[in-house]
Amino acid sequence: MTIELKGRIDSNNAARVEAEILQKLAGAEDQALTLDAAGLEYISSAGLRVILRLKKSHPELRILNVSSEVYEILDMTGFTEMMTVEKAYRVISIEGCEEIGRGANGKLYRIDQDNVVKVYKNADALEDIRHEREMAKMALILGIPTAISYDVVKVGESYGSVFELLNARSFAKILAREPEKLDWCVQEFVNMLKKIHGTRVPAGKLPDMRETAIGWARFMQDYLPEEAGKKLLSLMEAVPHDDHMIHGDYHTKNLELQNDEVLLIDMDTLAVGHPIFELGSMYNSFKGFSELHHEVFEKFQGYSFEIGAAFWHKALAAYLGTNCEAKIREVEDKARVVGYTRLIRRSIRRYGLDDPGCRAEIELWKKELLELLARTDTLLFSLNELELEAVTENLPELQAFVEERLEAADCPMKARMQISLAVEEIFVNIAHYAYAPEKGMATVRVEISEDPVTVTITFLDHGVPFDPLAKADPDLSLDAEERKIGGLGIFLTRQIMDDVAYAYKNGQNILTLKKKLG
Amino acid sequence: MDIPQKIDLHMHSSVSDGSDSPAQLLAAVRSAGLGLFALTDHDAVKGCAALRELLEPGDPLFLPGVEFSCRDGEGKYHILGYGYDPQSPAILGLVEISHGLRLKKVHARLAFLEREFGFVFPEEERRRLLARDNPGKPHIGNLMVKLGYAESKEQAIREFINKLSLPDDFIRPEQAITGILAAGGVPVLAHPSYGDGDQLILGEEMDSRLRRLMGFGLQGLEAFYSGFTAKLTRELLELAGRYGLYVTAGSDYHGKNKLISLGDTGLEDASRGPEGLLRFFAEVRERL
To answer: How big is the A-B interface in CB pairs under 8 Å?
Structure first.
């Protein structure tokens, strides 16, 4: 039951207002009570007492459409912490506004040059808005560039949160207008993805995607043959807990380029978990959703399904740090297991199995899923790239990482030992000299390509530019003198590997070692 | 003797503006399961004497109380007094002054209503009204309804009685506090965040108000009150701790005249403190 409060409630009329409310409540004592304060101009302590008494008889009491002045009084006196008090919101219209983004829970519109509003689907979205704000704040604190809303508004029957987003363009829009920027977009897209996945989240702050995914797998038990259902569940359960962040709805409409900065938006789906869960939802965004009807993708992202598919493929390759098709395909298949599970469950829950259109889609996904389940034994995968601090203490970690990849490629023992030696020489060299006397990070990428099987190991660091392959450097300083001793390591490395190349690009030393196997 | 779990140190009987006679109030206190209670009529102590006569063995502990309406240049205050000597001229004098001011106002109001609107109040009714312990606007309003001058008490007050604004005919807070102290009682500021009627006192204002009243001898704060949120109570407990003030808990029960239940103070279990309340109990224990 909703009762309107009007004008002033003070000692002159508090008793009368209370009596009137009680009269309206007579016979409806059990109903949840909502006070609509849109017309309430002022409330004194006499009025506050009335509200408190109503709260005692109606514990679910809510007060809506409270003006800023009244809200301040309710806040100072602690009413906002003991009951739901919702402010009256500025009303805005999105008629004629350009849709610039779309997420799981709402759509993003540009309302003017500097501001955008995210309009939530859920009519009762205030909790969602609060949640997303919390998420965005936390992400920002953890180092993820994002936008934080500064106002909540009413848009028709829905709520919206307003952000400042100056001159920003989504990656989807860039791709639609300037397809030649595809490679640049992929690179930035992957950089952000790695940043997200490299962010550790304190325990309990975000939902655990693993649990959510196990929930999907449980749901699927009724819709899959018993064997396949069991396998799906055991695959999900075998994914270990991971306290790194995942975005949960990562696609090109949720990445904005503002001036030169890339911002991640739509933070309400943040979670923690193994990156395979992210890749699953990314697969859906780029391909899964529109697998039967490709035009769905274009409607969603504003560029063609084909460009989307190419983007996904390149992004996955860059993310994995490989251009080995087999490896990319292998991880994509794992992502599809997660993706299809989610899609099927979503469609069944939203539309049921009766709708023939949905049925065709579900059948397609299910066929693919069953086929994948028959040949998938784990959802785990590893990246071919390791970023670590360039200090000699980290050498064992690096060597284990390289070993693991060589082993997976059936690299012969002798070559493994040789490569391991080369890795040690180069890494120790970087650790000693690249950032001295400071410390810095190094990235090591291990790629294995076929025909003939070739191992490529790339070392990247942001230290002082130095080409270890230059035989003699006329400007040798003392540091460089010492580097000469390391020259023996380089000599060994050149002996061991088939090809060693150096480049300095984008402020990075890039040293590439190649060795053909067998 | 330890303080009982359920206590309520602020309630009104029909001697002031509550609906329950002292006997009815005692019955209500018994059935509410209170272990300790105080009757705090406005500007009146008669109810406490009556109540004490009614007490039987096994009844909840009873602490005599009173609530004085006060005013000075800084605002309005309700000052509670507990555990005073009921025979003390100091307390009786305060009651007398307050009652006298009240009667003066009733006279003035009736004269105004007769003069301004031509209402006639029969002598018999007038005498009955003035013979009440605590006559005020609501009683005049009720009488006007009875005589057919208004539809409701509220309408009578709004449209007729309130047209006359009277000067500050209240005792001053220092009068109340010194009087209660002189009678051997403990002066406590009632519902401190709500001065009176519409006042809302918080933060800095509360702090300076308290320090001023403490200068007069104020000893306690009603930090637990039916009309307070947890936040207001927290703020008051913090102040009480800072200044070493006693803490009390009261509902402001008025019987059927207000929607407040007995024992509704926001304090679940008095035996677990706060410390200021335990000290208060130790102070008044001998006067129960």
So the answer is: 65
